[in-house]
Amino acid sequence: MKKKFVAMFLCAAMTVTMLAGCGSNTSTNTGETAETESDVSETDSSTDTTADATDTTDASADTEDDKVINVWSFTEEVPNMIEKFKEQNPDFDYEIKTTVIATTDGAYQPALDQALAAGGADAPDIYCAESAFVLKYTQGDASQFAAPYSSLGIDVDTATKDADIAQYTMDIGTNTDGELVGLGYQATGGAYIYRRSIAKDVFGTDDPAEVSKAIGGGSGSWDQFFDAAAKLKDKGYAIVSGDGDIWHAVENSSDTGWIVDGKLNIDPKREAFLDLSKELKDNDYHNDTQDWQDAWFADMKDEGTKPVFGFFGPAWLINYVLASNCGGEKAGEGTFGDWAVCEPPVGFFWGGTWVLANKDTDKKEAVGKVINWITLDSSETGLQYYWANGTMEEGTAGTKDAVASGTVMAKSDGSVDFLGGQNMFDVFVPANTYANGKNLTQYDETINLYWRDQVREYTSGNKTRDEAIEAFKQQVADNLDVIVE
Hints:
Elements: H1 2-7, H2 9-19, E1 41-44, H3 58-66, E2 68-73, H4 77-88, E3 95-100, H5 108-118, E4 126-130, H6 134-138, H7 156-163, H8 167-172, E5 183-184, E6 191-195, H9 196-203, H10 208-214, H11 223-234, H12 244-251, E7 259-260, E8 263-264, H13 268-271, H14 273-282, H15 294-300, E9 310-313, H16 315-322, E10 339-342, E11 353-357, H17 364-375, H18 383-389, H19 406-410, H20 425-434, H21 444-459, H22 465-479
Parallel strand pairs: 2-3, 2-4
Antiparallel strand pairs: 1-3, 4-11, 5-11, 6-9, 6-10, 7-8
Helix pairs in contact: 2-5, 14-21, 21-22
């Protein structure tokens, strides 16, 4: 498949040419590709300096190139972090040249692939990949470009241990030679995010420990969850908005991925999603919405068909999705403050951004300092401490978020008004240990789309269970370089 990789670059180059003239909008990474809406931009993050009028030699140009670090990302998030790093390190005399290309319509990957393959002074020194396609760059068709962190001057074993980095993030960021080539800064282990008022009405308490028991938290089974769904239905509530709300928990708790030894593989837990989805629909346990659609967002502010008890997701779903769609900005407005988090029935993760370095960069030491600060520095002046505590901007109370370093979260305050003052780190720190990072493939984004479409065909009564599975297999066979039996 790596031979095919190079063949795509002519098309990718055309994509870059068409996009180069567009402007840019800042967007927040929520881990969901479809929600990224920034366009293409290429900006210099440092002030331009004018060279001496008498100095026009090629050697001068080469010297200037030596002080430029090219950063590629699909949102402004990582570039903004590097700006913070430069503020803290005024002696870091590198210009940061940023290229941001949204994942919308699949634009980012072809452009990045072409830039990596072309090499030269304009090639990315640092680049980002999200969970939907990160394995392509750490273990798959484009993994040959990624530099081991150890080659950047990072003591990987010591740093990951000291920072208590979640194992699933390291598994995903480790290449086939066992070398760490990518890490994230967010922690995206998942929890069940529920409405306190509904919990009190149905279960007599909104205490996270008791609600976790009611839905089978940590059991590894969906049995208790569906028992809770029946109780909620009796009082006029839906346990989730749509079947997509349990999909990420199902997908990322499976033992194996979609591809095993080059062949399509349907893990039993993922196949069981057919039955779980049908049970939700047939029993009217949800509002039958699709995630990322208007009806899904409406349920967050209690404007759907039935009030929805909860959603499955990581901290970013709380911070950037639920909080933005709850209908208010303080307690008493919409559903703001009426939420809490507890342990889910099965452990999972959802989303995240991994930071990689180009093995051909000639600025390894400088690149290593930046990447170490973003992904492994667990001090109070490291990125993750600022990110966890919402202190990226001095004097401003920003958004708190779960981070990859357990060490950082252990010394940070995760209390959030949106969750009624609950310290969300009490739930999200263990959630990261339950997540499985060994069931991903580089084709997940595409295969998941095929699978969920066919599950909906089945639950809607348009196809039998067997017909849906066969149609799914045919889609994979027709569109991907995968053996289907």
